[in-house]
């Protein structure tokens, strides 16, 4: 597997907490609704929708150290991941905590998983899971991902 493609769901699932139409910080029920909607975008293999949850200059670093900056690079990363066998996979997220650290700035921690991804040759990939932390910023009436850092975690 290419280092560029390791654990692409972490961006997806933590981004679910980033989009809020409400002016106030997202509440637990709102975050749950957003998580479901964003996982549905993953299930559609919609790289552009994923990138849209980032701030225009948002960035992420995956467990292998690959770094993407800006929506175009993030969309390209996900398009490559979906083409390499992640399209059709199923993602999961257990949001562990969110915390406002300043007005308009939130930190979110979660556990993510991917099941059902395929290799480019069509074989089954082993399940993946890990931890991720996102820094979210309010832009207008929505939360966007400013930075995301992800890591793998061993199977329980």
Structural overview:
This protein is an alpha+beta fold and 156 residues long. A six-stranded mixed sheet has the order 2-1-6-5-4-3. β5 and β6 form a beta hairpin. The two termini are 22 Å apart. About 13% of the residues have low confidence.
- How is the main sheet built? 6 strands, mixed
* First-last Cα distance: 22 Å
Shape: globular
The count of β-strands is 6
What is the rounded Rg? 14 Å
**What percentage of residues falls in helices of 4 or more residues?**
25-40%
Strand content: 35-45%
Strand order of the largest sheet: 2-1-6-5-4-3
User: Average pLDDT across residues?
Assistant: 77
Could you state the order of secondary-structure elements as H and E? HHHEEHEEEE
Low-confidence stretches: 11-31
Q: Enumerate how many helices there are, as a single number.
A: 4
How does the helix and strand content classify structurally? alpha+beta
């Amino acid at each position: 597997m290419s280092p560029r493609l390791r654990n692409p769901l972490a961006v997806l699932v933590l981004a679910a907490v980033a989009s809020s139409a409400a002016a106030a910080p997202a509440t637990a029920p709102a975050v749950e609704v957003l998580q479901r909607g964003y996982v549905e975008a993953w299930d559609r293999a919609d790289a552009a929708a994923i990138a849209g949850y980032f701030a225009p200059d948002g960035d992420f670093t995956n467990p292998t150290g690959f770094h993407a900056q800006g929506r175009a690079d993030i969309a390209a990363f996900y398009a490559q991941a979906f083409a390499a066998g992640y399209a059709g996979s199923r993602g999961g997220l257990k949001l562990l905590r969110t915390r406002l650290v300043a007005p308009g700035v939130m930190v979110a921690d979660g556990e993510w998983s991917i099941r059902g991804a395929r290799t480019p040759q069509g074989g089954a990939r082993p399940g993946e899971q890990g931890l991720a932390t996102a820094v979210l910023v309010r832009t207008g009436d929505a939360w966007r991902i400013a930075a995301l850092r992800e890591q793998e975690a061993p199977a329980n």
